[in-house]
Specification:
Helices cover 19% and strands 27% of the residues. The chain is an alpha+beta fold and 205 residues long. The strands form 3 sheets. The protein has a 5-stranded antiparallel β-sheet. The chain has a 3-stranded antiparallel β-sheet with strand order 2-1-4, with no helix packed on it. Strand 1 and strand 2 form a beta hairpin. Helix 3 crosses helix 4.
Length: 205
C-alpha cells in the first residue's frame, strides 16, 4: 500500500542565523527526473556548521544537512526504471552536472564522455547550496544522486557506505557498488560510533 504524502511537514530550518523547528513547511513537489525521499536519519558535519556560519552565503531560510537516508516515497516523471517506491536509499551531496562547464568537459574527456556532478562548476550541493537538505521529514533528490541501501545496512550507517563509494560512485550499478561498501562495514562493526545517528523526524518534539 502506497503511503499518502502530506502537504506539510516538520523541518529544522536555519532562520535568521539560528535553527528553528517548523511544523508547516511545504512538502516539495516533484519535477521531471526527481525523487521524493521520506527521511529516516540525517547527519550534521563540519560543512553544515560552515553553512550555519554563512561560509556559503546560503539564502535563508534554509533546510541544512547533506547526509540523508530513507525510503523512496514518490517518483517524478522520467526517473530511471531501477527506482521504485519503498526502495531504501542514501542521497549523495552533489547532483545535476550541467555537462557544459570546464569541470564537466574535463572529467568527461577521460570518462567516456560522461560528466560527474562532483567536478561540475555549476553543481547543486544538497543542504548547502541550490537544494534544501535533509533536516526534514521529506526531501527531493535526482536519480543521478541516489544509492540503494540493502536491508542488512541500518539507515544510520549510510555515512560509512557512501564514504567507501564517494570517489567513484556507480550510480547505475547499485548491486555491484554496494558489495564494496557492505564488505567494509561488515568487517568492522565495532568501529561504528553511536553518534553517527542524529535521530529521526518521528523523535522530534
Amino acid at each position: 500500500m502506497v503511503e499518502k504524502i502530506p502537504k506539510k511537514m516538520k523541518a529544522l530550518r536555519l532562520v535568521n542565523e539560528n535553527y528553528k523547528l517548523q511544523n508547516d513547511v511545504h512538502v516539495p513537489v516533484l519535477e521531471k527526473g526527481q525523487i521524493l525521499v521520506k527521511l529516516a536519519a540525517s547527519g550534521f558535519c563540519h560543512t553544515d556548521h560552515m553553512v550555519y556560519e554563512g561560509a556559503f552565503k546560503t539564502k535563508l531560510p534554509f533546510t541544512g544537512s547533506h547526509e540523508p537516508t530513507g525510503s523512496v516515497a514518490a517518483l517524478g516523471p522520467g526517473v530511471f526504471d531501477e527506482w521504485k517506491v519503498g526502495d531504501r536509499v542514501g542521497v549523495y551531496l552533489f547532483s545535476r552536472a550541467c555537462g557544459t562547464c570546464g569541470g564537466c568537459k574535463g572529467y568527461s574527456a577521460t570518462h567516456e564522455g560522461k560528466p560527474r556532478a562532483r567536478y561540475c562548476d555549476n553543481k547543486t550541493m544538497v543542504g548547502i547550496s541550490g537544494a534544501e537538505g535533509c533536516f526534514a521529514e521529506y526531501m527531493i533528490t535526482t536519480d543521478d544522486a541516489i544509492l540503494k541501501i540493502p536491508e542488512a545496512i541500518p539507515f544510520e550507517c549510510k555515512y560509512f557506505l557512501l564514504f567507501y563509494l564517494s570517489q567513484e560512485p556507480m550510480m547505475h550499478a547499485p548491486g555491484l557498488a554496494l558489495e564494496c561498501g557492505t564488505s567494509e562495514i561488515s568487517r568492522s562493526p565495532q568501529h561504528i560510533p553511536e553518534s553517527v545517528s542524529s535521530g529521526t523526524p518521528d523523535s522530534w518534539p
